[in-house]
Write a structure and sequence with these properties.
Pfam families: DUF7963. The protein is α+β, with helices and mostly antiparallel strands. Helices cover 51% and strands 9% of the residues. The protein folds into five domains: 150 residues, no CATH class; 54 residues, no CATH class; 173 residues; 136 residues, no CATH class; 152 residues, no CATH class. Helix 11 crosses helix 16 and helix 15 crosses helix 16.
Length: 785
């Protein structure tokens, strides 16, 4: 018969009780480990670390297990005692730890500083009356032989008439069970490290051991050094030659089993070999192309994205190939002030150096717009060439035009300069501003102000930074003018009253936001041009996109369109080249489908003058005998267009995984269809394939600022400049191979950029126009049609 009595059970444990039991178990385990270690059966560091059980004062339950350093009373997590010992004791974080004798070992390791006697200790013993008394600073563990320890004579015991102190032999508590005699050495506590090195040397001589360093085969060493040298060259000056001699870098190489890399090795034969390899590869790719475009970048010393080296410029020459790739050709170091004739000569020398007698292989030059006259002269002297100015420079110049010609921009710039200068230079106001800025943004600092040497109408970047900074600090400036101390300043200072009036005036902030928004809009389009490197066929859609955005800006901020449109059209006219219209018409990417289903070139999007430009350019690029045939083929292209299937295949788009924008899936299709399915239009096809691959920007890649400074130092040395040119070539060649056009400074700026700054700026400009990607040309052309 089953019993009716129930078995009593314990009440279920709460989560806190379960956690407390686990912590108690962890603590008891650590105590056991430490006890064994002190007896010589565990790790050395337990002599200096003690487990501590921290309890909750309210419930008396275990809350945490900590490790306490017995040398400095610091507390650490007990999750990884070995790592705590390495980071706190071995790396010198503990202020009282210098050396410790590991048990069961005759090797000397750092001992704790706290175990050394104090020089001012009153617990002295009598000095030994016998000279030359032998002392052992490192006593052995009970089971080790005394022969493994060095017996030294203390210099402090030599009789001297000036010696007043006495040696201290007091024995400190020894948690490891060792007999440690503390010795005052003549060099002080620093002598202990040298003494340790001495005993280690003796031990190695008595029982030499094979090296435990990494052993690599000859092939592995050669391969590693080759990769190391390539990294050094492609860093383009981020790493200096002197860094190769750094002791820790040499120690790293030794640790991984590599020999030291000498400066003369990387600047000598290895550099020559790598340069020869890159040069040969570039020349081979240029020889394989039927024609190419030369890109010249660096004539404009005050460029948006260039580096200037004092008064010296580095002009970089690249070769753009029809297949969409680019190769580096050379770098020329020129003075900051040079004539258009000099620029023309350098450009033509580059063309002849690339082509020899077959100069017609170079179908054009694109250069930053410092000496546009040189481009025009070369084009007029060589009818087959199309020489265009950099589109990036055109957009940057447009911002300069607004700063120089539009009244609103000038007024806003002057007002912001007045506010920024007053806040930065008035002591009491500056103090108030920094206090509120620290409260609101978490960092202090002054408002950015363009240099007094800076021409605000020509250098937009400093002005842009100032407007952005003032907008970011708009709330802070409002708080400043409401501060009681600022009100006291206003009583005596009329400028303070004027500044306060502007800050409290809504019109000031509306005008500032309007100017900043337009500058930001154009600046972001310029950055997109810099990243995308558009072809000349995209120039007309780019400017049409800009016109649309500027009209929207005028409507949003209630700005008169007339003066704004005049400035934009004036800059467009200065930058315009007939090749823009011709490439736009001949590129199948921009064909439009009409009501009959045909895909026809977008002549409806051109003005009457631009249509004439197309005819003139095509007849100029062909011989006189072929001119009338080319015009007939152009008429056929205008009326018949291209097979719909091929047109649709050329215009297939896919989403870019990096930017998320829709882009042409195969950009080379535009050129290839002219060489295949449109081969009947023979003369016009020759013009088309030479036009539609031409780049509209001269920008290729960016050098690091550190390397440019290195060039400045060595520019007067023939050997130094030759090495610099070779390293630039290698780095540029590698960057273009990887299609990496940025530099390390920009990458680091992105890495360290804080999201909070962007969030605040977005909050200030929540209503500002959003800058979208490049306008889809088909959409613009559909509207025009």
């Amino acid at each position: 018969m089953a019993s009716t009595n129930s078995i009593p059970t314990d009440p279920p444990l709460s989560p806190d009780d379960i956690a407390a039991r686990a912590l108690n178990k962890r603590y008891e385990g650590l105590v056991t480990v430490r006890t064994k270690a002190i007896k010589g059966k565990g790790a050395w560091y337990w002599a200096h670390l003690e487990p501590i059980l921290v309890r909750n004062p309210n419930t008396n339950l275990a809350k945490a297990v900590k490790l306490k350093c017995l040398l400095c009373d610091a507390l650490f997590s007990a999750s990884n005692p070995s790592r705590t010992a390495s980071e706190h004791l071995k790396r010198g974080t503990c202020p009282n730890f210098t050396s410790v004798l590991r048990p069961n070992s005759a090797s000397l390791s750092p001992l704790p500083i706290s175990s050394l006697p104090s020089p001012s200790s009153h617990n002295h013993r009598k000095r030994s009356s016998q000279m030359g008394t032998v002392l052992s600073p490192i006593s052995q563990a009970p089971h080790t032989t005394s022969s493994t320890s060095i017996q030294v004579h203390s210099l402090a015991m030599i009789e001297s008439p000036n010696f007043c102190g006495e040696l201290n032999y007091s024995q400190a508590p020894n948690p490891v069970g060792l007999s440690q005699h503390h010795l005052v050495l003549s060099g002080g506590k620093e002598d202990l490290g040298a003494l340790a090195m001495l005993e280690n040397s003796v031990k190695k001589l008595k029982s030499p051991k094979p090296s435990t360093g990494a052993t690599l085969s000859r092939e592995q060493i050669d391969s590693a050094l080759e990769l190391l040298s390539e990294w050094f060259y492609e860093s383009c000056g981020s790493v200096s030659f002197s860094s190769l001699e750094h002791p820790k870098f040499k120690a790293f190489l030794s640790q991984v089993g590599l020999p030291a890399v000498l400066q003369r090795e990387l600047s000598g034969a290895r550099l020559d070999a790598k340069f020869g390899e890159a040069k040969a590869e570039s020349e081979a790719r240029i020889r394989d192309a039927m024609f190419f475009q030369v890109a010249s970048d660096g004539w404009e010393s005050q460029k948006f994205c260039s580096f200037s080296c004092g008064e010296d410029n580095m002009v970089k020459f690249m070769v753009n190939l029809p297949n969409g790739s680019s190769v580096f050709q050379k770098a020329v170091f020129a003075g900051g002030s040079f004539s258009s004739k000099y620029a023309e000569e350098v450009m033509w020398d580059t063309v002849t150096g690339l082509c020899g007698n077959a100069v017609q292989r170079c179908v054009g030059i694109v250069a930053d717009k410092y000496k546009a006259k040189a481009l025009r002269n070369l084009e007029s002297q060589n009818h087959w060439m199309v020489n265009v100015s950099c589109q990036l420079q055109g957009f940057i110049s447009l911002i300069k035009d607004f700063n120089k010609e539009h009244k609103l921009f000038m007024v806003v710039t002057d007002n912001c300069l007045k506010v920024a200068n007053f806040v930065n230079t008035t002591t009491e106001v500056r103090r108030i501003f920094q206090k509120y800025k620290m409260q609101e943004l978490g960092y202090s600092g002054l408002l950015q102000v363009p240099s007094s040497k800076c021409d605000n109408s020509k250098n937009f970047a400093p002005v842009y930074a100032m407007l952005e900074d003032i907008l970011t600090c708009s709330r802070i400036l409002q708080m400043v003018v409401l501060d009681d101390c600022f009100k006291v300043t206003c009583v005596e200072d009329p400028i303070a009253r004027e500044v306060a009036g502007m800050i409290q005036n809504e019109g000031f902030w509306n005008e500032l936001e309007a100017v900043y928004s337009l500058m930001k809009l154009i600046r972001e389009m310029a950055q997109e041009i810099e990243a995308e490197r558009p072809l000349i066929g995209q120039c007309l859609p780019l400017w049409e996109e800009l016109r649309t955005k500027v009209k929207d800006w005028c409507a949003k901020f209630n700005i008169d369109e007339g003066p704004v449109e005049k400035i934009v059209e004036k800059r467009f006219t200065k930058n315009y080249h007939p090749a823009w219209s011709a490439a736009f018409i001949l590129d199948p990417q921009y064909l439009m489908r009409d009501t009959s289903g045909k895909y026809l070139p977008p002549f409806k999007c051109l003005t009457h003058e631009q249509e004439k430009d197309v005819d003139k350019l095509i007849t100029r690029l062909v011989s006189r005998e072929e001119a009338h045939v080319a015009l007939m083929e152009l008429m056929k292209w205008r009326t018949e267009g291209m097979d719909p299937l091929y047109a649709q295949a050329v215009q297939v788009k896919q989403r870019d995984p990096v930017t998320g924008k829709m882009k042409i899936a195969n950009p080379q299709s535009s050129r290839l269809v002219w060489e295949t399915c449109l081969s009947k239009l023979n003369i016009l096809g020759k013009v088309a394939v030479r036009l539609i691959f031409l780049h509209a920007t001269s920008f290729g890649f960016k050098c690091n600022w550190s390397f440019m400074k290195w060039i400045c130092v060595h520019r007067h040395s023939r050997i130094g400049l030759e090495r610099a040119e070779k390293m630039i070539f290698i780095a540029a060649h590698a960057k273009l191979e990887r299609r990496d056009l940025s530099n390390d400074e920009e990458k680091e700026a992105e890495l360290f950029a804080t999201a909070s700054d962007d969030d605040m700026l977005n909050e200030v400009l929540s209503d500002a126009p959003t800058v979208l990607g490049l306008l889809e040309p088909v959409g613009w052309m559909a509207n025009q049609a």
